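Work Package 3 committed the consortium to producing structural models of liganded targets before the mid-term review. Because experimental data for this complex are still outstanding, the team generated a predictive model from sequence and the ligand definition alone, so that downstream docking and mutagenesis planning could proceed in parallel. The input record is reproduced below exactly as it was submitted to the modelling pipeline, together with the SMILES string for magnesium ion.
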Amino acid sequence: MTENGFINAQDVMFAYEPEEGREPRNVLDGVTISIQRGEFVALLGHNGSGKSTMAKMFNAMLLPTEGKVFVDGMDTVDEAVLYEIRRRVGLVLQNPDNQLVASVVEEDVAFGPENLGIPPEEIRVRVDEALKAVGMYDFRLNAPYKLSGGQKQRIAIAGIIAMQPDCIVLDEPTAMLDPRGRSEVLETIHRLNEEKGITIVLITHYMDEAVQAGRVIVMDGGHVLLEGGPREVFSQVELLKKHQLDVPQATELTYRLQGMGFPMPCTLTTEECVEALAAYLPPVQAVP
Ligand SMILES: Nc1ncnc2c1ncn2[C@@H]1O[C@H](COP(=O)(O)OP(=O)(O)O)[C@@H](O)[C@H]1O
Ligand SMILES: [Mg+2]
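The resulting structure, written out as tokens with the ligand in place, is given here.
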């Protein structure tokens, strides 16, 4: 059965090959996730909850031991559609250094479409467009190793865009970046989502990144613990804390103040938090 989502994972179970003499353990234990076309979804959960394993299910790098994953209606176990699935869903990993293969930026971006057998003149157009989309066109003749972490990650994203995917899954793409690199990458993926309608699945442990998503899915112990809009998810502070999961700093502060008897709303961002706190401050006296 396929639902109407672009990606539908249904009751997915998965166990890695166990070490000698060990029993296999389900690292995915019945995951059901549906991603609609055009969505921006953040996938959260602490280390070992199965996020990266799930990311690999989304483009058939891994196949469920039980359950099903459908991409655009295609079953990921069907080898005949593997190419079509990989073309639709691109995966960006944490470390940009492991993803860049060529010694010149534009050659790197061309690598994916070359593997897809796209004609050279079409590749030229796609590479230029992809580099412009991530704001790296001026660096097309540079050597990737000389770029900053954020720039390298944008090149890796350009390499995926050049394959014209419908969806990009990013597995902690900002974890190794400095704050500036992080915001460059974040802005880039939001722009791709808004302007090109590319579906984004962002795996992250930064709560401020999750707050900006359209929907948040929280995984815990190989299954989905919670999902919904950022406000809906992060207002469940107690449940999240019980599972040793973080909430945004603003949410934490307003939650504690609520506990101390200050009636105030659940806030997600610094701006919202400031506004909630301002209600308790005395009015500013005009300086005579
Ligand atoms: N290649 C592998 N072989 C065996 N076990 C693995 C492998 N990759 C991950 N695991 C285990 O699977 C579980 C889930 O890992 P992962 O999907 O990487 O979680 P997350 O990305 O949320 O940290 C962890 O317990 C991890 O140790
Ligand atoms: Mg991971």
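Reviewers should note the following from the model. Residues 179-196 form the longest helix (18 residues). These observations will guide the Year 2 experiments.
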